[in-house]
Input
Amino acid sequence: MAHRRTFAVIGLGRFGSAMATTLHEMGYEVIGIDASADVVRELADRGIQTLQMDVTDERGLRAAGIHAVDVAVISIGENLEASLIVVMLVKELGIRTIVAKATTPLHGRILEKLGVSRVVFPEREMAVRTAHSLVVPNLIEYIELSPDFCIVEVPAPADFAGRTVKDLQIRNRFGLTLIAIKRDGRQGTDSTNVAPGPDDEIRAGDVLALLGSNANLAKLDELSR
Output
């Protein structure tokens, strides 16, 4: 049986609590750590393994078994000093994959210099997602690949139904690449056509996965009408 990764979430504010809860609901082993007794108790009531302690206490982290987890999520955005101390501690404990929350660009740059695997800006990412959903009201999914490129999922416009990829000329018209067609098979035939060919037909109810620049994303407002 393949090894299922284990996680430590250090800092159980809104982001950390949501992260620990989601991982737990997905069936992964999670340990949540925070200095607040109320937060720790709340998550413990949901069946999540938790510990109340000073998150900057190296001996306490080691005693808690943090060195044995595969991934550490550092969700301490408000206290910059504590965030950086905990990142250094978990690195010294030998954890290779570290995801750290940042609240400012400077905070993020420092975390990157410390060698974390991934820096996340929850507020920024939510703002970006919301902004795109306002530009494209029917947006189902938005995945940022870089500051300039993204993948989006949108329902196929009604006038696309019955037409082939070649007929629609999506790249020429919108500067976007169709990378997949997701089909909801109401008769139990759900499917995803990855890298559809020019003769593949789009049907009513299909979802289109499109790759392109943020500059061209605005054209999806026209496509989705």
About this structure: Residues 145 and 151 are 7 Å apart (CA to CA). The chain is about 35% helix and 25% strand. The longest helix spans residues 122-135.
